[in-house]
Each structure stands twice: as structure tokens, then as C-alpha cells.
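User: Sequence in, structure out. Go.
Assistant: Echoing your sequence, followed by the C-alpha cells.
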Amino acid sequence: MQITKYLHSCLFVKDQDTSILIDPGEYTFNEKALDLHTIAALDFILITHEHSDHMSIPFIKEILSKYPKVQIIGPESVVFKLQDNGIIAKSSGLDFITIVSVPHEDVVLSVPPENNQYTLFKKLTHPGDSHHIRNTAPILALPIQAPWGSFADAIKLAEELSPKIVIPIHDWHWKDTVRQGMYQRAKEYLALSDIDFKILETGEIIEV
């Protein structure tokens, strides 16, 4: 499996001749972190929930203009919102995409949206904006920092779930110098539990 991070919670995954983009949000779009010309083919877009840092409608429309046959999957609230914008999506998965509804963490002054956790090929779990994770594949995309959660809580969750590999996501809010320092601490700490914390930079591809 190849995994590439394109800011925040946006991951591009290739496995078994299938290409999947998860959570193409506004930070990735606005900062032009993902050059679509570098992706030869795209089969699926998975959206965990409707917040704009995970689902940028202008970005999705741009993706569809290049890959018109791509299939989009998300919770029902996402499906309805995309339909309102003339975009077809569905809420069901396939045999290699396991979908579990998990609560979005509490958000101040607003109602948390529906939130999907996706597990791809039984190898990678991406929970969107949730720390209500009861199990994980060997690779966990872990929301690491947010207005609704803390870095310490995320690291404790990784200890409890004990994946083989952690890929930090949901980290756009940190400056690079802060992020790199905190990630080095996390890497050293989780190594004591035999968990490999990947300090993945934008556009960097890892083979796992």
C-alpha cells in the first residue's frame, strides 16, 4: 500500500490497482497541496463528514472534471449536500472499504455532523474527526490536534489501540516548527510501545 498525505486529513491511497482519495478539504485545495496531474487515475473519493476542511465542494468539482468516473462515498448528510450541488455520491461501501459510523467529537456552538470511519483493504483506518475508535487496522490515520481534542488524548488513544503504524492527520492548525517538534516527541514516545509514528510531509509517499 502506498500512502501520500496532502495536508491536514487528506490522504491518497493506492493498493491492489485501486486509487482512493480521502477527505479532499479546503486547506488542501486553497494551498494547492495536491497537483492532480501527479495522479494518473482515481477510482474513489471517501469523505468522512461534511465540514469544509474535509469536503471542499469546489475541489471535488475540479477533481470530477479530471476524473469524471470517480465514485464518491460519504455519510448520508454528505450525499445530500453533494446532491444539492449537482454531484452524485452514495453512502454504501464495497468489500474492500469497510464503513463504520463513529461520533464526531463535540464541537463548540454547533451540532456535530455524521462521521464515517473507513478501513481500506483491512490495512488502513481513517476515522475522520473521531477519537471514539474501538478498533483499527494495522495502520491508523490518527487525528492529532483540533479545537475538539488534544495531542495528549490522541497519543493515549494510539497506545490503547496499539496499531503498528500511526499516520498523523488533522494538523493544519499547527505551524510546521511546532508540528515537527511535537511529532518527534510522539515518535520517540510511541516507539516504546513498538508503534511506528510516521512523520509524513505533504506529498511524501510511503510504502507500508
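User: And one key feature?
Assistant: The longest helix spans residues 176-191.
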